[in-house]
Structure formats: structure tokens, C-alpha cells
Amino acid sequence: MRQKSGTGKAPAEQVIKDIRRATRKQYGAEEKIRIVLEGLRGEESIAALCRREGIAESLYYNWSKEFLEAGKKRLAGDTARAATSDEVKVLRKEARDLKEVVAEQALELRLLKKSMIADGGDDE
Predict the structure, then answer these.
(1) In the predicted model, is pLDDT for residue 4 greater than 90?
(2) What DSSP element (H or E) covers 94?
(3) Rounded-to-integer distance, Cα 62 and Cα 35, Å
(4) Counting beta carbons within 10 angstroms of the beta carbon of residue 102, is it exposed (0 to 12), middle (13 to 18) or buried (19 or more)?
(5) 3-state secondary structure the chain
(6) pTM, whole model, 2 decimals?
(7) In whole angstroms, how far apart are CA 55 and each of 58, 62, 101?
(8) Angle at the Cα of 26 (from 25 to 30), degrees rounded to 5?
(9) pLDDT classification of 93: cutoffs 50, 70, 90
(10) What is Dmax (Cα atoms) for the chain?
(11) Of the ranges 3-12, 41-50, 88-97, 109-118, which one carries the lowest mean pLDDT score?
(12) How many Cβ atoms sit within 10 Å of the Cβ of residue 117?
């Protein structure tokens, strides 16, 4: 029996590959930093470190590059980040509220000036 064209792998091999992908270890930021710092210390070779941690050397070098670039940006003061949509909504509401307060105070000031002009100005 022939496989469908374009699949390239036997169904069993594909199932195993999918399972491996789904069960792959996920490394958190702290784990990545720990591994990169161990590599930077140079107490053991990168190859040995990667074997011990069960990661590919290319992955280590990607993490190392990201780590160093992030440090460079932080030291350069480039800490701008995109605001979340919730933050934007809160800031817009706050700006709207502040504009209303300014408008009310401007109106009160204008009314006070008109009433002082109507009263002759200097009654003191």
C-alpha cells in the first residue's frame, strides 16, 4: 500500500515525533538564566553543559544571545514596553476625567471673573 504523497514519514514515526514535541521540557526564564550563567562561568565546556541539561548547543547559544542583548538594552536604558489594552483603557479614562476637571475649573473661573466685573471689581 502506498502512502499519500507529501507525508514523507510513516504514520508511527509521525505519532512519535508529535508526542516528543508535545512532551518537550519547557524551560522558564530562571532556568534559562541559570544555564546561560553556568556557561559564561566557563567551569565546563558548553558541550558538556548542554549534555548535562539535555539541550542542543544551538539552543544554549540562542538563549545566551537573548540574555546578552537584553542586558545591553537594559544598560542602555531602553526599557520601553508596549502597554496592554487594559492599561490603555485605564489611562484614557483617567485623561478624560482630568480633562473634565480642568473644563469645570475653567468654567468656574470664567463665571467668577464675570461676576466680579458685574459687581464693579474692587468691593474690598
Answers:
(1) no
(2) helix 85-118
(3) 12
(4) exposed
(5) CCCCCCCCCCHHHHHHHHHHHHCCCCCCHHHHHHHHHHHHHCCCCHHHHHHHHCCCHHHHHHHHHHHHHHHHHHHCCCCCCCCCHHHHHHHHHHHHHHHHHHHHHHHHHHHHHHHHHHCCCCCC
(6) 0.48
(7) 8, 11, 58
(8) 125
(9) very high
(10) 108
(11) 3-12
(12) 9
Boundaries of every domain in the chain: 9-80, 82-124
Nearest to 31 by CA among 55, 48, 51: 55
Q: Residue for cell digits 539552543? A: 59
Task: State the cell numbers at 50.
Answer: 548542554
